[in-house]
């Protein structure tokens, strides 16, 4: 758990930028409901009023390469207190051979965020479901999740493990691989509810 209050150093005002791909971007997969970023903003508004604001900077199809390219423009120029990054789904499309490049890109992102004076939170993306036909993605994707976990440990970057939360839910409710997903890789509104709940617990915002 990484308490948000500790990350903010006691400040009563905060600006959080959420970076990522189409899973972070507010789009059609949640059928008009708030995704996990919108739910975080709603939670903070209820708890703290307008003193803590959230910017959704998710862009469909992004990989860590695109995140690096737009990190200054879409996040760091605003001098955010916290940058939350969920990434890896699209990187895994490049196969197992690009895992080290993914890890290197994450390290560069972490260094840039630190140098800007902001705090970084990494979030693993959700699991994929059995309808995904591309076996090489099914094989490579867990390697990217593990790379993110390893980077988190090596560089002491807080990690909210959404992937693990989806796995635990699937163990209890096998059909959740269908009920939480809008397609083989994008969570629906119920999947985003689980993502938000996982993030709230991680940030100690459940009360």
TrEMBL record:
The molecular function GO annotations come to: phosphatidylcholine lysophospholipase activity
Where in this chain does the record put each SGNH hydrolase-type esterase domain?
Answer: 18-194
Q: Which SUPFAM superfamilies match?
A: SGNH hydrolase
Q: Could you name the domain of life of the organism this protein comes from?
A: Bacteria
Q: What is the name of this protein? A: Lysophospholipase L1-like esterase
């Amino acid at each position: 758990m990484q308490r948000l209050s500790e990350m903010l150093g006691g400040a009563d005002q905060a600006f959080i930028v959420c970076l990522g791909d189409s899973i972070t971007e507010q789009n059609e997969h949640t059928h008009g409901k708030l995704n996990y970023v919108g739910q975080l903003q709603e939670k903070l508004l209820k708890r703290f009023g307008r003193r803590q604001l959230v910017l959704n900077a998710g862009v469909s199809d992004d990989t860590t390469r695109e995140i690096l390219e737009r990190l200054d423009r879409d996040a760091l120029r605003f001098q955010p207190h916290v940058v939350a990054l969920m990434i890896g789904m699209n990187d895994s499309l490049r196969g197992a051979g690009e895992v080290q490049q993914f890890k290197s890109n994450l390290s560069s992102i972490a260094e840039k965020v630190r140098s800007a004076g902001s705090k970084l939170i990494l979030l693993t993306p959700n699991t994929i479901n059995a309808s995904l036909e591309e076996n090489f993605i099914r094989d490579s994707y867990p390697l990217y999740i593990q790379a993110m976990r390893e980077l988190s440990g090596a560089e002491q970057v807080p990690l909210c493990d959404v992937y693990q939360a989806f796995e635990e839910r699937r163990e209890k409710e096998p059909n959740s691989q269908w009920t939480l997903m809008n397609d083989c890789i994008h969570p629906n509104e119920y999947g985003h509810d689980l993502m938000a709940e996982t993030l709230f617990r991680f940030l100690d915002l459940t009360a």
